[in-house]
């Protein structure tokens, strides 16, 4: 496994691989890796000759400076996880390398970037599109792997690839969970012992809500989920929306779509956790 710090080196190494007709798979990450990230690396190594992983905490996608400052950084541990997973190249650029000058591009994704995470984290998806479009341009992968945990992000990336006319196949991989159901996340490292015990309430409540679909309306399920989680004084639901899985438009009843997903964001203390569940599709 080769660790690369500059765009020039990245391009050199990958050009040689491409000249040897190797297919390139790519997994962009912000580090603090866990088994969820490694499941993307596993899919990537299975389906491609060469697996490239990037680790870069992208400042332009953080709208909260404190969140950026406290984002966990665990490079040595990350590299120790990636090597046995079969990763070939790890790209670890500095901020100067990725942003030698400010990126002023504005992406217009419409509704999919304006709801849910888009509404609560202004500029977040523009920052995601800035960094992922740069990484895609430098790596030029055949395939790229993202987690369904960031459900809205996958929709944004697919739309970005379409808008930019890139020929990259986007794969969405299932959410990996801890034994108690909590969706794995780098941010889980920031939970106190008490918060860590409480956090599985999110996944548990979403799973429970699945069993009510045949007897409760969309509105009733939203109210049930929000109330059940907010009942715990450590937790505060920021939003819970039940949407069409493609358009991300809120739905009013279960017959409105064949693909229905519930997306939630919850503050567990100061730590912002996201999760989702598929009701239909
Ligand atoms: P991040 O480092 O948080 O930006 O995540 C990098 C990639 O890993 C994104 O595509 C995430 O959706 C994905 N990912 C994060 N957590 C999980 C998880 N628990 N299961 C599957 N994929 C995940």
Please describe what this structure looks like.
This protein has 281 residues and is of the alpha/beta class. It has two domains: 172 residues, HUPs (Rossmann fold, 3-Layer(aba) Sandwich), CATH 3.40.50.620; 90 residues, Pantoate-beta-alanine ligase, C-terminal domain (Pantoate--beta-alanine Ligase, Chain: A,domain 2, 2-Layer Sandwich). The protein is 41% helix and 20% strand. The protein is built from twelve helices and nine strands. The strands form two sheets. The protein has a six-stranded parallel sheet with strand order 1-4-3-2-5-6, with helices on both faces. It has a three-stranded antiparallel sheet with strand order 7-8-9, with helices on one face. β2, α2 and β3 form a beta-alpha-beta unit. α8 packs across α9 and α11 runs antiparallel to α12. It is globular and about 60 Å long. The model has no long low-confidence stretch (mean pLDDT 97). Bound molecules: adenosine monophosphate (AMP).
Nutshell version of this structure?
The chain has 281 residues and is α/β, with parallel strands linked by helices. It has helices at residues 7-19, 35-47, 65-70, 75-85, 95-98, 111-114, 117-120, 124-139, 151-164, 193-198, 201-210, 218-230, and strands at 2-4, 24-29, 50-55, 89-91, 143-147, 169-173, 235-244, 260-268, 271-280. The longest helix is centred in the middle third of the chain and has 16 residues, at 124-139.
